Amino acid sequence: MFKSLKIRIAITVIVCLTAMYFLIPTFISNIPSPWNQYLAKEKIHLGLDLQGGMHLVLEIDTDKALEAMMERTSNDLKESLMDNKVRFRNLGKANGASISLELTDSAGKTALENVLRDKYPDLEIANPGDSGQIVNIKFIDKRAVELKKQIVEHSLETIRNRVDQFGVAEPEIIPEGNNRILIQLPGIKDSERAKNQLGKTALLEFKIVDEEHSLDEALHGNVPEGDIIAYGLRTDKSTGERGSVPYLLKNKTLLTGASLETAKVQIADRFGDPSVSLKFNSQGSVDFERITGENVRKKLAIVLDGAVYSAPVIEDRIAGGQAQITGTFTMDEASDLARVLRAGALPAPVNILEERTVGPSLGSDSIRQGIIATLIGTLFVIIFMILYYRFAGSVADLALIINIFLVLGVLAAFRATLTLPGIAGLLLTVGVAVDANILIFERIREELRTGKTIRLSLETGYNRAFITIIDTHITGIVAAIFLIMFGTGPIKGFAVTTIIGLLASLFTAVFVTRVIFDYVVWNFNIKKLSI
């Protein structure tokens, strides 16, 4: 018995010391050296409702994404029709995510249907019964719905990657409806920079500059077929003034940011201007080498979200999969650009539907009021337990304090976020922990009234109450798990804290209090238990 008691005391002490280890950074901000290198580094993270931050609702423009996909498909379709000798006069954009094709004869429609069936199973003729020479081609309705769903899922993953690289602790990124994403970023101070990071499409494209046609004529409305006009920024180093520069580009995209492996900031030249260095993956390296080899002495424009950042001349075939984006960057701009390129491009433009900035004063008020509520509730429970159960109540109160420290220690250890609903969950576990001890104490009282010894009463009381305590705690944990599965951010915060509190309550109410009772009875040989 004594050996078993020593083991249980050791377990209790180890668990309590472990919780204190993880809580030290939360309660002591400046830990002197060299102790700080041996202690935990993470403190309890506070949610948006406690420390302030940003609340955003983004809308994914899936229709625009489908239009862009159809536009890219039209270039391939044009080549396929020419390869299959399908005669047509014009292929251009129609309304929405569809393209218009003018055929030269009735036989061309059958040939077009064959090409779509063999090479483009996602496309169909929008007006199959029309006998005219102009046909519209669109995505099959079922496929369009699937593509929109994939676009939202891809956008959600890309935004998560960007937030992770931005260094936000415990963000909330939740899909809402068919094409919306809710984002909560605790602790964000620079809201404009965060919005630029999250909302930038970051579509990186490599296009050839068309130097065969006149840029001036294109600017006056005579844009050659297959070309587009894009603009870039140029800074006069002597005056520092920025101006826009037009470029005439081939519309065909030779390579995109999907082939990137990484992007990082480096100093571009002796003037100390930052640039973004790109490294392609294995397939991207092969494609980039082929593209540069086929276009020696031509200008390769590096286009991001429709803006030309640079258009260097290809001096020779470039092997190794390395490229560089230069421009008039500040260091922050270059870092942000590299960050979004690493995270990947959004498949569709996003619109900010709702934006709220929660100030730190609201967080301070919430923290103060939450702590006051928790302390008052805990104090009333402690006083009641001492008055009603006397010494046994004091044991339960000690276990209750340990329970609170264990919950906070687990939150700190697993880098969980404490929210205002989480504080409510913490207060709830105070009542649950005390309720478990009341069940045990009432069972012990019943055994003592029958004339049993203190040790036997303790043994029987704990054994009989154990099943009921397990049942109530498991029921609460299962309910909280469902809240995590189907609830939103605040509900999840409440559920997580509740689960941790219930598990800690099982340990303190059943294990810790039993250790204290056994130690007192064993060492002091008491004749009457104050309960």
Describe this structure in words.
By secondary structure, this protein is of the alpha+beta class. Strand 5 and strand 6 (134-139) form a beta hairpin. It has helices at 2-27, 48-51, 62-83, 107-119, 141-166, 191-199, 215-219, 282-294, 331-343, 360-389, 391-413, 420-449, 454-486, 489-524, and strands spanning 45-46, 53-60, 88-93, 98-103, 123-125, 134-139, 172-176, 180-186, 204-208, 227-235, 242-250, 255-256, 260-267, 274-280, 300-304, 307-310, 322-325, 350-358, 417-418. It has 14 helices and 19 strands. 53% of the residues lie in helices and 20% in strands. It has 3 domains: 2-47 and 360-524, Multidrug efflux transporter AcrB transmembrane fold (Up-down Bundle); 63-145, 2-Layer Sandwich (Gyrase A, domain 2); 200-356, 2-Layer Sandwich (Gyrase A, domain 2). The model has no long low-confidence stretch (mean pLDDT 81). It has a 6-stranded mixed beta sheet. It is elongated, with a radius of gyration of 34 Å.
C-alpha Rg, in Å? 34 Å
Please, how many helices?
14
Label the CATH architecture of the largest domain: Up-down Bundle
For the record, the CATH class of the largest domain is: Mainly Alpha
Cα(first) to Cα(last) distance is 23 Å
CATH topology of the largest domain: Multidrug efflux transporter AcrB transmembrane fold
Strand order of the biggest β-sheet: 11-10-16-15-9-12
Secondary structural class: alpha+beta
